[in-house]
């Protein structure tokens, strides 16, 4: 009779997420994932199908537990006028704390965009969808802050804010001060429209 696996799947995924977030998919070795999750190689493969299956679960967890809660104030129907500025200010503050996960590790998806795993169609779609989620949230934030903003001007400004935030996440591991400066530029750009 086969033994049933008894572990907290969500916690295992969080532990694996921490490894992938800090090391990247390619550098995250199975022994390191075993140590972090407390699962054996065979349990990882039985439960997730592969290292890649565990990575996919980690990406879903990252979006659901890290990204979307931070974007929640920008994702609802009634977005407050200050919601975008508050999101950007909080991001800037996080970047200035070297011990924070975003300052130490950047963004799991932006990091993956610059790694070989990004050539996988499923991963590249997840990265593009994430960028789209950011853009949509920032667009709603801009519309709430500047009610008359619409059309091409709104799209261009949302592109600029999104680009600055993505660039900040790409740089934060090597230059937190520059990442914080880019986010401040996004804040100033958004505030200049009011």
3D architecture notes:
The structure is a single chain. This protein has 194 residues and is an all-alpha fold. Helix 4 runs parallel beside helix 8 and helix 9 runs antiparallel to helix 10. Helix content is 74%, strand content 0%. It is built from ten helices and no strands. The mean pLDDT is 93. The radius of gyration is 18 Å and the shape is elongated.
Please give a quick description of this structure.
By secondary structure, this protein is mainly alpha-helical. It is built from ten helices and no strands.
The helix-and-strand class reads mainly alpha
How many separate helices? 10
Overall geometry comes to elongated
Number of strands: 0
Radius of gyration: 18 Å
> On the 0-100 scale, what is the average pLDDT?
93
Give the termini separation: 67 Å
Largest sheet: none
User: Which regions contain 5 or more consecutive residues with pLDDT less than 50?
Assistant: none
Give the percentage of residues in beta strands: under 5%
Taken in chain order, the helices and strands follow as HHHHHHHHHH
Helix content class: over 70%
Annotation keywords:
elongated; 194 residues; mainly alpha
């Amino acid at each position: 009779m086969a033994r049933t696996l008894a572990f907290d799947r969500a916690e295992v995924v969080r532990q694996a997420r921490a490894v992938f977030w800090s090391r990247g998919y390619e550098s995250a070795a199975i022994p390191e994932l075993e140590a972090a999750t407390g699962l054996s190689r065979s349990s990882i493969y039985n439960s997730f199908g592969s290292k890649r299956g565990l990575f996919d679960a980690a990406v879903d967890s990252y979006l659901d537990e890290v990204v979307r809660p931070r974007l929640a104030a920008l994702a609802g129907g009634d977005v407050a006028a200050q919601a975008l500025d508050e999101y950007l200010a909080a991001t800037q503050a996080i970047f200035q704390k070297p011990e924070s996960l975003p300052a130490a590790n950047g963004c799991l998806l932006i990091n993956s965009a610059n790694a070989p795993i990004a050539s996988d169609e499923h991963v590249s779609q997840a990265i593009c969808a994430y960028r789209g989620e950011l853009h949509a949230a920032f667009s709603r934030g801009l519309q709430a802050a500047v009610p008359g903003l619409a059309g091409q001007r709104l799209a261009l400004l949302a592109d600029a804010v999104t680009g600055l935030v993505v660039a900040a996440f790409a740089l934060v591991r090597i230059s937190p001060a520059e990442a914080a400066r880019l986010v401040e530029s996004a804040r100033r750009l958004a505030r200049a429209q009011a």
